[in-house]
Amino acid sequence: MKNRLGLLIQKQWPLFLAFLVPFMIMSILHAIKGVYPFGNETVLTIDLGQQYVDFFAYYRRTLLEDPSGLFYSFSKAIGGDMLGLWAYYLASPLNLIFLLFPHHQVSLAVTVLTMIKYGLAGWSFAYLLKKQFDGDNFTIVAFSTSYALMGYTIVNQFNIMWLDGMIFLPLIILGLERLIKEQKGVFYSICLALALFANYYIGYMICFFLVCYFVFRLISYDDSAITEKKDKVIARIKTSLLFIWDSLLAGGLSAVLLLPTLHSLMVGKASYTKLDLKWETDYPVTEIVSKFFVGAFNFDQMPSGYPNLFIGSLALLCFCFYFFNRLIPLKERLAALFITSFFVFSMNISAMNKIWHAMQYPNWYPYRFSFVVSFFLLLLGYRSFTKLKGVSPLATFLTMIVATGTGIYVYSKEFDFLTPIQIIITLLFIYLVLLLLILKPQQYKWMGLVLFLVTSIEMTVNAGISLSRLSYVDQDSFTVYQQGQQQMSDWFKQYDDDFYRLEKTFVRTKNDSFQADFNGITHFSSTFESTVPELFGRLGNPVGGGFLTYSNGTLLTDALFGIKYYASEQNDLYWSDQEDIPALIEKTSLPLKLDHFRYDTIESDFPLLSKTSTNTDKYQFTLKQTKPDLNDYQKIAATNQILLYKNPYALPIAFGSSDNVSSLYLQRKRPIEMQENLLNALVGKGKTTTYFFPEDFTSTIYQNLLLSESSFEPTVSIDDHTKKASVKFQFIPETNDAYYLTMGSVIGEDEVKLTLNGEPYAFYDSSDETLVYNIANNDYGKTMTFELELVEDSISLEDIQLYRLDSSAFMESITTLQSGGMNVEEYGNTHMEGVVTIQDNQNFLMTTIPYSTGWSVSIDGNPAPTEKVVDSLLGVPIQSGTHRVEFTYRTPYLFEGFVLTLISIVLLGMTFYVQRKNSI
């Protein structure tokens, strides 16, 4: 056994090193940075820390506890299809590593997974070079290290689901080469199918690249063995047809995931797609050379920057030599020049950039396809390296001159992501590698080792500089919040085993519900169904492409969407991991403002949420809203940091209503009117009740502001920038009702600071809709002052209006709807069953489940038709009386995709048999 292992290592040592070197380089770099377990840092940053890590926790829980979560989840806002989300974020086979780690170590699992993906990318590229060029020395490891640690990988390591494409791409190209040379495409089909399965988005870009690469190889392929011109044309046609067939097979093999995902995209991300193309340049094309320098990256490059193209000096110089290499056929070099020019064109012209990104301009992380360009440069570079004898001294000298001139040009442009030291370091590496290449490394065995060491050092320097320019989540702060929130969620499950929704006034991410396993409303993902954020935006909450923040709810929306429980901050919100105190605060420390609610002393256990306020290790988290109307809810438990509330007005997930709601449509920038119309339509009774009454401010005070009403909406601007500039709205509530203020869609933390009676008012940045802010409740006779202090030079005071919610009318209507509420007896992610009693004046079963063709409903065992209500929700016509209702979800097109995958497997087997028979 030992002899076999030793023999394997002796034969395959370049492949072992190709994995081990990038794995160790990145592991050591992260250890030096103090990444857990070597310190208190994590790799969690940007979307990895704010989005993906929560999905990974959900992934682990789904596979270990409830596989139905693969298809649907009520943790995704008010409910949503999960297979599309799974396909984009979680389908990588390597994610199985999360099953080896406990829930509280998910950040460590992410770190280990990232290091493994670096190693596998290096191994994959080395395997391609070994099979394609018969390489077996240190230069293979040098080029594979350049591939694994290229600039794209380093700056996108937090987009961890994209890295699978880098692992599969070399294998796909190896399969394509076999298809072209040997007419065998099964390996190609399987590898491409795996890439599409692991991440369809990156898979799409790989498919686009494959067309380009196939054209390149079709032109450059050596067919000198075929003498007749006609036979050459036939051979190319045959190869092209085989390429198309095997590519379609790859799509068919992954159809079980791709078909449902395509449907999910059509009702989600793809609905934002605009087909207009702008044939204009994004930047001066010569500036692209700046990204070939060491550490050419900073934070500002993420929202809008240049393509990440750093591949190291060895690969870059050999790529440049490729076009002057006499030993490489001219037609191949011309074809390569054409494809390279096309790639440059794609990275500079706006329309081409949009096409590469599936007809949607990327929101942050520009030029996400640049990894295929880097791959192409590296592949041509290695081919050139194997034929260095064909490079003349003149070409080498001209390359040195061009490199020096490029350094001077880049220095003169003063790019904010490049310092003079970085430019000098890059040029020193280029000169050193040029010197080594002049010595003809093929003639000296030790030269390969030297090139490998130089390349490894250069790639390490680039990685170190690039990674240092981002901030990361601390391990302690992440773990404390993660476990504390989980304990809160577990406590609620013990307290109430019915179906309910839970929301919070504080947040770590918009996907806390996935991390801690509860049914929330706030959500963010690229696969979010567009109808849900559109609905909540119309009701006065911040929404955008792929996200919804339930931070501006009213008593009315809390009730309608069944938010039965609320967690809110008490005093300053921080959690610590030291020194427990009793979990429940004494009743005397929680004076109730409404004596008609009873405060229950419930035994609870929040060891990580119940900490003293004197600890030195404190972890501050974000408040997303100020919500005075929580005083109308019942306080049920508390810790030193949070208060837990029960909402007595919350409706169940399904309830009887009037069918008037089926003819209601969404209205823009009228959130209060929309809420009122929705409740009236649900209640019916043939009359319209006014729930929100417009109120006047007693005074509006402008301080150091210039008011302009020349535009469509009034605008205020700062008069003297050396003084505070603000506008104050004052009023005195004449009742204890809840008061709400509407404001336009231009209010954010970068524009204003908000205070209520001198205290900071927590809010989430607005979006395209008019938002609703709760600014008073139970404040009869008090002078309320709501102040907007300008941060920017000017803001628009659009749609500002004060409203009072008539609590009596509101409670009367909610009580009516509650009387027809469904008693949920069984529930899960894809199934719900219960009994509902429909009143005589009700003829419609309204739900707060997002409408989807995947939901089927049966009433008393008989299938019932479903309707889309208010452009977003599921409703069912129903007769009065007591009924048993069953909801079942089946992912649309999953069965069709499964059948297509089975057919493709059969066709793949037949293809393999035919190709093998023809090769004998």
Automatic annotation (TrEMBL):
Looking at the UniProt entry, the stretches that span the membrane are: 12-32, 83-101, 108-126, 138-155, 162-180, 186-219, 240-259, 306-325, 334-352, 364-382, 394-411, 417-439, 446-465, 893-914
Tell me the protein's name.
Uncharacterized membrane protein YfhO
Alphabetically sorted, this entry's keywords are: Membrane, Transmembrane, Transmembrane helix
Task: Give yes or no: UniProt keyword Oxidoreductase.
Answer: no
| Highest taxon of the lineage | Bacteria
State the organism named in the record: Desemzia incerta
